[in-house]
């Protein structure tokens, strides 16, 4: 989606690869985690826009750890 991609890049977005069974190499996410920690360590801010998931199961979905990992690393890896 070229038009959307232009705006995403213009806003200095950090891409995240999904682990949802797509067979992608999510080790590339390490670059995103490093960039996010560096931005937070310099006093910057990040916005996280997770994908919404609907389901009709009677329980909670598995917890995602990315946001917690980024924030804890920014605080404790100084």
List the defining traits of the structure above.
78 residues, 42% helix, globular, mainly alpha
Q: Please, could you describe this protein's structure?
A:
This protein is an all-alpha fold and 78 residues long. Helix content is 42%, strand content 0%. The chain contains 3 helices and no strands. Helix 2 crosses helix 3. It starts with a helix and ends with a helix.
Average predicted local confidence, pLDDT: 78
- What sequence of helices (H) and strands (E) makes up the elements? HHH
Structural classification: mainly alpha
Q: Please tally the β strands and state the result.
A: 0
Proportion of strand residues: under 5%
Q: How many angstroms does the end-to-end distance come to?
A: 37 Å
Number of helices: 3
Radius of gyration: 15 Å
User: Which stretches of 5+ consecutive residues score pLDDT under 50?
Assistant: none
What is the percent of helical residues? 40-55%
Largest sheet: none
Task: Indicate the overall shape.
Answer: globular
